[in-house]
Amino acid sequence: MKKPGRKKRSPKVITRVEFLRMQLVAAEAVWKDAKEQFSRAKRRRKLAKLLARRAKTDVKRAKGQFAKAREALAWAETHESTATRQVARRKTRKPGTAPKATFAKKKISKGVRLVRAPKIAEPPPVTVLAEAVIREGNDLVSQGSPPIPGQE
Questions:
Q1: C-alpha to C-alpha distance for 42 and 38, rounded to whole angstroms
Q2: Would you tell me which of 61, 104, 107, 140 could form a disulfide with 145, CB atoms 3.0–4.6 Å apart?
Q3: Total count of domains within the chain
Q4: Is the dihedral angle over the CA atoms 107, 109, 114, 115 positive or is it negative?
Q5: Computed from CA positions of residues 80, 83, 86, 92, in that sequence, does the dihedral angle turn out positive or negative?
Q6: How many DSSP H helices and E strands does the chain contain?
């Protein structure tokens, strides 16, 4: 016996529901893929930011090392050129020719070195708590406290 008010579902309605289910599954797959791409892009940006920070610090460090190397080279060149120039001057020199570049003359030491007395380190500052402990120890000694076991 048929129940009143209940209609049979047509095959057309069933296929429509199935079609919507398939669309839902496809949309969910696209959504998960987009979410994964977003997280990968976010990770890439974070890594790029970290690499940029590291590169910036590397640039600063390299710049400092470059400046130090340049100064060391300039110092070595000036000292080497003054030493070689003096040696060249000792060799035979034609009269009337002047040296190409003028350098500042280095002061000649008199051979006397000043010996400084070693500095004696100052004792560390005594705190209020340490002073109190020292006073208590002095009071106990002056009162004739009992001897400490093992130290008689």
A1: 6
A2: 140
A3: 1
A4: positive
A5: negative
A6: 2, 0
Q: Is 127 part of any domain?
A: no
| Higher-scoring residue by pLDDT: 63, 111 | 63
Instruction: Find, among 66, 70, 68, 67, the residue nearest to 78 by Cα.
Output: 70
Predicted pLDDT of residue 55: 95
| Other CB atoms within 10 Å distance of the CB of residue 101 | 7
Would you state the pLDDT for residue 134? 72
Residue 91, token pair as written in the block: 């060799």
91 Cα distance to chain centroid: 53
- 40-71 pLDDT tens trace: 999 999 999 999 999 999 999 999 999 999 99
Q: How many CA atoms lie within 13 A of 44 on its CB side?
A: 6
Residue 39 falls inside a structural domain = yes
Read off the pLDDT of residues 66-106 as tens digits, 9 standing for 90 and up: 999 999 999 998 887 665 555 545 556 566 666 565 556 66
Domain encompassing residue 51: 10-89
Question: Does residue 22 form part of some domain?
Answer: yes
